[in-house]
């Protein structure tokens, strides 16, 4: 890092920065990063504008650009001739460390970073080649890495000379469009490790501002060049940008930075540059880093609903909101937004029902504020289907479940039980709606044709109700299902528009039917004569109720042989048939059921993987984390009974641990925030030790009698958690 001497030196740099600000004074906010507005979904309602987002190609306009842009390329100025190699530089470093004479190293750094031309002269692989394509940036990455790795180990005057040179480059007068050499310089400067230090943030901010204000065509090049950066360096740049945003929001030493009113463009600029790296990350399969590495947990502590409302109200304006860049918002923060949005919708619907009742001079009833579902355990699916069909107008009210003939009061526990039992029945193989694939351990939609798809709509509505009411479900759908569920994320106004259709690949099929996908993969790599050896046509066969039916993948497909030349088309059409066309009606009903409850702009913030986590939670149990976050009532965590309890539970098999979680909370899945979000409580029960433990699933509470020994506690606990269906009142 840079020491106090460097910080004092930066105060003199402020003159340069002031010059930049003065030059931009007359322009105002026009040079702040412009938002990339995503076109509205065809036939859909007007949506708030979104900035650069990598979840869907429709929402990332740079992806639609051709690989080779036809815009005129400005001539590159001639570069100075620099002949220093990696070996020469490393030799100079070794000599300087040994002798203490850093003159040669100082000269190299001060010259190299003095201007964008010098940066290119030093780090361009071949100064005589233009490198004007997106495929090759022309940057000698090894040399850049060696120079930056050595930089923080040099004396302070060397480090200060680099920052002075960067300021010189940023102060350059720009006439006309940027050249590819300029873009190369930006790409190299972004990797400078000095920008991890807060004392360099003023310079860093101006670098980010210039990059954010580049044209879309220039951003296109930077995105494709960035995806070639090594994983380690890529992650460092992303972390540096996230840290910059966090420390600008919540500075440890506010006096280090200019007042917020004078640098409102800092965070938008950094976020837009981060969006370029997010776009680059999405172009690689598998991605360079996980999508969760773009999360900024600092945003969990800001007023998220204000951000959300700004996004909704000022979508097409230039007012910045983090919701324009949803990749930076953690799943925890998104869950908060969705929950609060759901609560506001619930209150609004309930208030309207109350007003309607009063306006008709009818006596208000508390039940009108809820979605009341009354079902018999013996007719669970049919009763649930009837209730949800009759009460479509109430789907956005708070859910309340009653089992006929049982005295249980629904404070949350009966709702969890209803979801669990209903999902268990619907997904049973005998029911025929879904097919369970043992190899992938997931369910997929049955392609059997039927007259009524209302039960698929019920499953979609159940998933929507679960998200809307913050309930986790034990559903095992492949990731492709959630991608289809967000295609599109807002229901089109045109009822004839296709829904639930998304681009699918062989990788998606691998996650559902790995054996079939492997066979198709073998077909693609087969080196012999495909037509003669496989003797296949563009036709597929499926068994439906004991009858073999054939389907053409394209017009006259039964007459078109599969050859070496067209086998890629055959595989793509086959995958599309299995995952889109053959189950279209089933999935469309499922889609409309889900969105009948969860129609919200908040869905635009979610990735398919995040929808899956919201619906299903996490199956990975960490009982030690649960132990750390458990609260006690009538017990201390050091009491003998509690120590016995945790000794027994931590020694349970995974199956028994899931049963305990289901017994105490109504679900064996872990919510988005982890075990701590369960607010699990163990209370002392003053009943006889002959009694079994009792659970209040509404409150995630376990009532435990003070058993005398570990053996008795284990025995009673296993009996209790293994016979945990049904509710009653004491």
Automatic annotation (TrEMBL):
Pathway: Protein modification; protein ubiquitination. Its EC number is 2.3.2.26. It catalyses: S-ubiquitinyl-[E2 ubiquitin-conjugating enzyme]-L-cysteine + [acceptor protein]-L-lysine = [E2 ubiquitin-conjugating enzyme]-L-cysteine + N(6)-ubiquitinyl-[acceptor protein]-L-lysine. InterPro entries: E3A/B/C-like (IPR044611), HECT_dom (IPR000569), Hect_E3_ubiquitin_ligase (IPR035983). It comes from the Eukaryota. The active site is at 698 (glycyl thioester intermediate). Residues 391-730 form the HECT domain. The keyword Transferase applies. GO terms for biological process: protein polyubiquitination. PANTHER family: HECT-TYPE E3 UBIQUITIN TRANSFERASE, UBIQUITIN-PROTEIN LIGASE E3C. This is Probable E3 ubiquitin-protein ligase HECTD2. The lineage of its organism: Eukaryota, Metazoa, Chordata, Craniata, Vertebrata. The gene is Hectd2.
């Amino acid at each position: 890092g840079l020491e106090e001497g460097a910080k004092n030196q930066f105060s003199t740099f402020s003159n340069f920065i002031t010059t930049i600000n003065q030059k931009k004074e007359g322009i105002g906010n026009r040079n702040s990063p412009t938002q990339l507005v995503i076109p509205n979904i065809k036939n859909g309602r007007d949506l708030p504008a979104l900035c650069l987002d990598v979840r869907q190609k429709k929402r990332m306009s740079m992806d639609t650009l051709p690989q080779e842009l036809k815009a005129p390329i400005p001539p590159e100025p001639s570069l100075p001739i620099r002949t220093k190699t990696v070996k020469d530089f490393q030799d100079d470093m070794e000599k300087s460390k040994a002798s203490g004479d850093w003159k040669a190293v100082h000269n190299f750094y001060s010259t190299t970073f003095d201007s964008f031309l010098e940066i290119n002269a030093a780090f361009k692989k071949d100064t005589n080649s233009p490198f004007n394509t997106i495929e090759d940036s022309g940057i000698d990455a090894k040399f850049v890495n060696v120079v930056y790795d050595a930089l923080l180990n040099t004396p302070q005057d060397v480090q200060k000379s680099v920052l002075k040179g960067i300021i010189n480059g940023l102060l350059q007068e720009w006439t006309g469009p940027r050249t590819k050499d300029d873009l190369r310089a930006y790409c190299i400067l972004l990797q400078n490790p000095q920008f991890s230090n807060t004392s360099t943030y003023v310079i860093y901010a101006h670098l980010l501002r210039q990059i954010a204000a580049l044209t879309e065509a220039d951003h296109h090049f930077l995105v494709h060049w960035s995806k070639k950066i090594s994983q380690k360096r890529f992650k460092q740049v992303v972390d540096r940008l996230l840290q910059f945003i966090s420390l600008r929001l919540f500075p440890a030493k506010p006096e280090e930075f200019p007042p917020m009113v004078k640098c409102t463009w800092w965070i938008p600029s950094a976020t837009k540059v981060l969006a370029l790296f997010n776009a680059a990350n999405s172009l690689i399969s598998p991605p360079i880093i996980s999508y969760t590495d773009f999360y900024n947990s600092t945003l969990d502590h800001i007023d998220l609903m204000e951000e959300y409302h700004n996004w909704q109200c000022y979508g097409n304006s230039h007012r910045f909101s983090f919701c324009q860049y949803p990749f930076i918002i953690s799943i925890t923060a998104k869950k908060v937004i969705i929950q609060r949005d759901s609560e506001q919708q619930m209150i609004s619907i309930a208030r309207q029902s109350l007003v309607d009742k009063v306006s008709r001079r009818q006596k208000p009833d508390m039940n009108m504020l809820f979605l009341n579902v009354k079902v018999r355990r013996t007719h669970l699916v049919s009763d649930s289907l009837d209730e949800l069909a009759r009460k479509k107008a109430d789907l956005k009210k708070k859910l309340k479940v009653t089992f006929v003939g049982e005295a249980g009061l629904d404070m949350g526990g009966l709702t969890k039980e209803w979801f669990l039992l209903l999902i268990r029945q619907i997904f049973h193989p005998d029911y025929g709606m879904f097919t369970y694939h043992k190899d992938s351990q997931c369910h997929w939609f049955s392609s059997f044709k039927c007259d009524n798809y209302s039960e698929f709509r019920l499953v979609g509505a159940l998933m929507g109700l679960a998200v809307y009411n913050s309930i986790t479900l034990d559903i095992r759908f492949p990731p492709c299902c959630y991608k289809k569920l967000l295609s599109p994320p807002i229901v089109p106004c045109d009822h004839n528009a296709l829904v639930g259709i998304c681009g699918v690949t062989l990788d998606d099929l691998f996650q559902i039917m790995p054996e079939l996908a492997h066979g198709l993969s073998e077909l693609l790599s087969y080196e012999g004569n495909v037509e003669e050896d496989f003797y296949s046509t563009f036709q597929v066969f499926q068994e439906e109720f004991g009858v073999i039916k054939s389907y053409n993948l394209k017009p006259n497909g039964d007459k078109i042989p599969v050859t070496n030349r067209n086998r890629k088309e055959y595989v793509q059409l086959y995958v599309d048939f299995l995952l889109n066309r053959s189950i279209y009606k089933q999935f469309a009903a499922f889609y409309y059921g889900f969105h009948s409850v969860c129609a919200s702009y908040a869905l635009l913030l979610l990735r398919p993987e995040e929808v899956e986590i919201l619906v299903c939670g996490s199956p990975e149990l960490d009982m030690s984390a649960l132990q750390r976050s458990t609260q006690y009532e009538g017990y201390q965590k050091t009491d003998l009974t509690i120590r016995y309890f945790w000794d027994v539970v931590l020694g349970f098999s995974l199956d028994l641990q899931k049963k305990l979680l289901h017994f105490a909370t109504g679900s064996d899945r872990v919510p988005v925030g982890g075990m701590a979000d369960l607010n699990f409580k163990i209370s002392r029960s003053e009943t006889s030790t002959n009694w079994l433990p009792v659970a209040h699933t509404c409150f995630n509470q376990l009532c435990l009698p003070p058993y005398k020994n570990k053996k008795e506690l284990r025995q009673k606990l296993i009996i209790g958690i293994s016979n945990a269906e049904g509710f009653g009142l004491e």
